[in-house]
Specification:
mainly alpha; about 325 residues; extended; 2 domains
């Protein structure tokens, strides 16, 4: 997976974990900061921000404090997730009204959920690597697993068939350069399906982030004539809504088929309640805007997938 998302999400998780500091280990007031030498006026250096704590203690104590710090989650996590699932409008309105300390920042929550989606997608029952593109259990050519299972003769035959593919960019005549580019990379996908899957997964994390500006743009159009509603409001609403969808997707990847598929029935209900209460719209107005959101999202997702496949094929060159 891409280092950018892992780094951002790791930093977000780290900020949600509370380090259980031991006051007994704090350096005394007036002691020089170990980093910049400024006399300390409290547990943190006011000049450079370094923690004024003496770590010269046994390895066992350090290990136990580290484990305790890792498993002592910030209480904001347990206040944010139930609110996101049960009362998302209250969570969003509280943030927009300035009551932000009790909950996890929306962007941080979105990054962590996005990382969780790709982790469960790689390890769960519905792995990205084994996903069948045409949703047919009998097909072998439509999935990465099927390509890996091909014999050398089958692989050669498939590459021969792909050699006849022609790309028409304008008019009825095929473009030789575009056809050569496309055929060459498709044949490399047949030869290296694992590599293509890893490329798609790596770039998929970055392309998935495009769902945020897409959602915010669609909301801006849907509420273009609503006074007192700004782009910032749409971004916060989108972050919370997409985070909930990410949690549903992660659950879908790890739960059995008989349960996971039913989870997505909660998505339109959640969006309806969320939008109606945050933007204070009527039932008809909410349904009309939801229809616009679904229509625009479907087109946007198709464009994102096409872009992802184009970048993935380009990386196979």
């Amino acid at each position: 997976m891409s280092n950018e998302l892992e780094t951002a999400a790791a930093a977000s998780v780290g900020s949600m974990l509370t380090w259980r500091r031991r006051v007994a280990h704090d350096l005394p007031v007036g002691a020089p900061c170990a980093n910049c030498g400024t006399p300390l006026m409290g547990p943190w250096c006011h000049a450079c921000g370094q923690l004024g704590e003496d770590f010269h203690r046994s390895s066992w104590k350090l290990l136990m404090e580290t484990i305790e710090g890792l498993f002592h989650f910030d209480g904001r996590l347990w206040r944010t997730l139930p609110g996101l699932a049960i009362n998302p409008a209250r969570l969003t309105n509280s943030y927009l009204e300035g009551h932000r300390a009790p909950q996890i920042p929306p962007l941080r929550l979105f990054l962590v959920v996005l990382l969780l989606v790709f982790l469960t997608g790689s390890l769960g029952r519905h792995s990205f690597q084994n996903f069948n593109l045409n949703n047919s259990k009998s097909s072998t050519a439509g999935s990465a697993e099927g390509l890996r299972a091909l014999t050398p003769d089958q692989r050669a035959a498939m590459k021969t068939k792909l050699g006849g593919v022609q790309v028409k960019l304008a008019g009825d005549k095929a473009d030789p350069a575009a056809s050569q580019w496309f055929v060459t990379r498709l044949q490399k996908v047949v030869d290296e399906p694992e590599r293509f899957g890893l490329v798609l997964e790596s770039w998929g994390e970055r392309f998935a982030f495009l769902m945020l500006p897409l959602s915010a743009a669609l909301l801006s159009i849907a509420f273009a004539f609503r006074r007192g509603v700004y782009l910032f409001d749409h971004v916060i609403f989108s972050l919370h809504s997409l985070s909930f969808m990410g949690l549903l997707t992660a659950a879908f990847f790890i739960l059995p088929d008989s349960i996971g598929g039913w989870l997505f029935l909660a998505a339109p209900v959640h969006l309806f309640v969320h939008m109606k209460q945050v933007y204070r719209t009527s039932i008809i107005g909410t349904l009309l805007r939801m229809s616009w959101m679904f229509f625009g999202t479907a087109i946007g997702v198709c464009l994102i997938i096409v872009g992802l496949l184009a970048v993935g094929l380009s990386e196979m060159g």
